[in-house]
Amino acid sequence: MSKLCISLPPFAPDYSGAASALFELGGMIIIHDASGCTGNYTSFDEPRWFGSSSAVYCSGLRHMDAILGNDEKLIKETADAAGSIKPKFIAVLGSPVPTVIGTDLKGVAKEMEAITGIPSIGLETKGLAYYGKGIRDATAEIMKIFAAEKLKTQKGTVNILGMTPLDFHINGWEKKFKSLFEENGMEVIACYNMGLTLDDIRNSTAAELNIAVSQAGVQQAEYMKEKYGIPFVAVTPIGDGMTAVEKARNALDKNFTAYKSEAVTSDVLIAGDQIISNSIREYIFERGGVPADVAVLFDCSPEFMSVNDKLIKDELQLRKLLNSGKYRTVVGDPMLKTIIDEDNLKSINFVSLPHVAVSSKVHWDEYKDFLGSGAEKWLNSIK
């Protein structure tokens, strides 16, 4: 029962991450479910859905189809729809029910490709992992089709990885991050996965460096390092953005340093995505000497953890941490306030940092700035 959520909503799952990664690429995305998972993604995990024309479909899985394993219906209906909209690719995403009945989504995708002639991928998403894994898996599969070969490395070029609305909403931060690096002498080939095209994916294998701006970006970067030999740094541009710029410059000069954080006692806690939280911690320590601990809510890479950091595995663990009395300042999504006892909340300086993967549309209109004076204002309130 430790995984039971009493106050917090379930965080964005892997199929939402996969659909988000593929959203802008001109493909046909099918979530194989009985409507609930598709509705969860389009209504709550995808700010771009409102007013968009992206082809995201629900397979309409029904009881008898699940019991009898009727994959032919899914294949036929997909082929009929693909004949009308002519997508650049087809992606079939799993959900809990196909997982339970053992649907072979990769096999289904192969049949779809044989019938339609359209490149097709099957992703074994289950709804049981976090969105970062879905982003990584979707990126890997689409690159196998559209970036099979490593292009010659272009000196001074970078890719930005892990840029999806699940972490950064749709306030144009992909353009601002890109401008930051380009204004400081680096050419950005591709920004995964906002403002991205299939041509960008093909050309991205020529980058000299990948910059992972979120933990999902780390998972993408690890795949691209293994597949194409592209090294990476993990940092989110925060405040004036110069920490991220310097890390990228050093990496381009082949000066890579392991992540480290001051292992000192702190009464500040930052809860959220690992890389975004680490970058906030680094910024406030460098600028104001304020140490902080990080509570990682989603996927986690051990090499980017400090001594006092915590990987949060369930709501109960997070509830106990926030009510431990150790922290006088907490930075995180506003939903986290619901699991802090009222008496404890009175003595905590709570710095709101909305996160789509946590609170969805409840707070996504309150998103904070990552760069510039707007960012400085809330960063300076972390004391």
Helix content: 40-55%
| β-strand amount | 5-15%
Give the number of DSSP strands: 13
For the residues shown, what is the average pLDDT? 93
Anisotropy-based shape: globular
The main sheet comes to:
5 strands, parallel
- Poorly predicted tracts of residues: none
- Indicate the radius of gyration in whole angstroms: 21 Å
Instruction: Return the structural class.
Output: alpha/beta
Give the helices and strands, then pairings.
Blueprint: H1 14-22, E1 28-31, H2 36-45, E2 55-58, H3 63-68, H4 71-85, E3 90-93, H5 96-101, H6 105-116, E4 120-123, H7 131-146, E5 157-161, H8 165-168, H9 173-183, E6 187-191, H10 198-203, E7 209-212, H11 215-228, E8 232-234, H12 242-252, E9 268-272, H13 274-288, E10 293-296, E11 310-311, H14 315-322, E12 329-332, H15 342-345, E13 349-352, H16 356-359, H17 373-379
Parallel strand pairs: 1-2, 1-3, 3-4, 5-6, 5-7, 7-8, 9-10, 9-12, 10-11, 12-13
Helix pairs in contact: 1-2, 1-7, 4-6, 7-11
